[in-house]
Amino acid sequence: MLRAGRIWVTAAAVLAVVGGSPGWAQAQQPTRTEVAAQQLPSDWTFTGEGAQRQLVWRSGRPVPMGDARVEFYAGGQLLGRPVAARDGRTFRLSLEEALKADGLKGAEALGDLQVRAGGRRLDAAGIAALPDRRRAAVAPPAAAPANPVDPGKPGSYRTVSGEYTLDSVKLPGMPVPVEMKAVVVAPTGATGRRPLALFLHGRHSTCYKPGSTDVDGAWPCPAGEKQIPSYRGYLRDQKLLASQGYVTVSISANGINAQDSDLEDAGAQARSSLVRQHLARWAGWTTNRPSAPAIVRTAPPADLSRVLLVGHSRGGEGVNRAAMDSLYRPPADQDGAPGPVRWNIRGTVLIGPTIFGQNPVADVPSMTILPGCDGDVSDLQGELAVDGTRGISRGSALHSAVYVIGANHNYFNTEWTPGLAQAPADDDFWSDPNDPNDRDPVCDVGTRTRLTPDQQHRAGASYIAAAARLFVAGDDRVRPLLDGSGLRAPSADPARVLTHAVGANRSAGILPDGAVTVQGGGGRLCSAVDDRPSVRCLAPDAGQSPHFASWATEREVGRRAVAVKWSQPGTAVRVTPGRPVSLSGAKALALRVVVPPNTTGTQLDVSVTDTAGKRATLGRVRVDGLPGSNRTASYWAREVRVPLSAAARAGVDLRKVRSVELTPRSRAGQALLIDTWGWRPGTPAVRPAALPRVDLGRLIVKEGDSGTRTYRVPVRITGQGGGTVRLYAQNPGTDTMTSRLVTVRPGEQSIDVPVTVKGDTLYDYDVWRSVFVKAVRGAVIGSYSGGVNVENDDPRPTVTITPVADRVTEGQPLTWRATLSAPSRAEMYAYLEVLPVTGGAELSTTDVDPAWLADATGQSPLPERPLSKIDGLYLFMDIQPGQLTTDVSLPTVADTVAEPEESVRLRVADYDEETGEPIPGPEFTGTVLDAS
Predict the structure, then answer these.
(1) pTM of structure
(2) How many CB atoms lie within 10 A of CB 257?
């Protein structure tokens, strides 16, 4: 038998832990008996029946349409990615596609419901749980020495601007064609072909209603609304580059933003296709100038052999994919820009990017801007555009991370900046100015570390120009601004900008991801992404690190760092790679080291030992933490270097370095070693390697009525050469993953990933079996997520309610029975709504078992009141898999008071499967007779 519960406990009756988008879904409907007494938080509810069942969260404030994916979690487990309503406050997650898996169960399934985006909590309970932020203001670090060459200074050319609009294009996975619209800013008076810089904005609202604050994500925009011109938000950056001799174009992608929510890759491939569609047009216009739009004819001819791509947020992931697709072509059915590649991408700039696949292009130089106060992509996952390139290919491309203290996500685009934007805009790092508890010492407006919109945009423009000058113009004099050398661009002042890098002239290093041992007190190898506290690098409540941004699985194999913790100075920690490394030719040993935010003066001696046992202390480094709070991802590595001259004097054979030692010299502290490299100045030429490309697909199959069938996850390998990837496959019937290293051999076209499906004639939920893939060495990954979806093809049984004991004497239970028309593999349920009676006396709160009432509703019997006055009282009926019936009872109590006949009125609650609207069902009456 089942117990009753209030309507806001309906979650107990309908929740199936399920992924709301392809790629990740697991768990099992919780049993109602385990969770009926639980209460949902006030901002959560449930709606619908059958295929329309939804878990709904409503925010207390509008959640702007942004780039990080909004995700529902329960008990630390990803439930799925909800769909946003047009009001910007309501988010709905479909529950029909539940898995029967040994995942979260019972109370755990509804425990600790959370809403996250980019690692940041959005729900009211999560915000309230943040520790008190009322702390002393945090000071920014001192200004670094100036670089002799400042790329942020305007050039000598005057500029001209204009727009073009071409026919919209149809892109795979998008029902509505996407616009081909752009704004061009170009130099005047420049001779010869000029390099081209293409900008792609991120995911933002697409339409607005003039004269109001209403914005939405529709496409095309409804009548009475206008398009939000996000593509015009980089005019300041474009004008700076144009003054320096670049032709620039910023393209519109509103059509993608409005249609990417259901795409497995969140629109990365579509954005790549749009970028390459524009590049193809520019390539055509270079040979057929009369066919070009007027502004393109006015501009100098573009040199398509020198292209810089600049992408903001999801636009960053889009230009990363465009660089990949230009070198390693995507599968034809995914490619929205077929045709020859008539351009050469020299580098990319990624501004606060998403990188959901964590699949950067190793052989295209990149600079990633990490906004320290990013309130959208707040986990700063763009760091993986740097870290994710290590060991993949030749390592000659520079990949730079540029951490801008006090910058938010939106203000790099003026059309997303209040006071500058044509449409309504906001500060993505929001806090409530009227709530003294909702304060941030680093990112609140007016703090010493927070940048104004003008300061932030000026810093962004300077560093975009630095990337253009290094990657496209080949001016090595600006490299120290990007590679961790600790110099600044005065044009970016007063912003404090910190950098580190991998690649370029760095030689063999020590990566904890590989075969590494750690010896010495206080040192250990730790896991970047792991659900086990004992092995993870940072405790869940310690703060966020961009280096440890989560991916698609709860655990990742081989993604590690070296954790060092000490209570007094002097104990060395030795890090030994699986084989000796060569530092021959290097000038210094570069280390990327993380220390806790807001700490200063961490000091470490750095030593090396060769295979013959000769040891030398290279010097001492000092590492300061970043300004940070519990809302920022501030566990970020500072690059420090020690000269190798001491090793040479001591006779250490730098060709055979066996280990590196770190010896704390400051008082108690902790640090994380991300990696070490041999460093020397310079920017080598980059020759992309011929690599195989791996793309996963998703197969949709019917369950069938009998027998066992084996299907294969679509895995396509294209390109040349061989490499190694790591494949994660979901284990049958569980929420766990199994990983394996896979060697991709030259000429292979697929990887065998079998999925077994057993047919039957019983109704069940659809099943998602997900697979993910990452590059390890010598490969690139396009579509990183796929699997097999098994659709149930059996009809859902109907439920019939009949009375078992609907006329009883007080002290006996009223009982009804639910009967299925056929067995089911899924847990089935019905619930009866308590309504006011239409005549006579109604059963009251003192007529029922007080323990039952408290368990079901949390309320006391007194003061006495009719049962229908308890808001949303329902009787839940749950039929377990394989059973046909279940009973639900309402226990009454006997008393000595003479009373008339009393009754309770019940109605089956049902919902329209198309609209989700309630449908009145059959009614039942239970009558209780006086026992006296």
Answers:
(1) 0.88
(2) 27
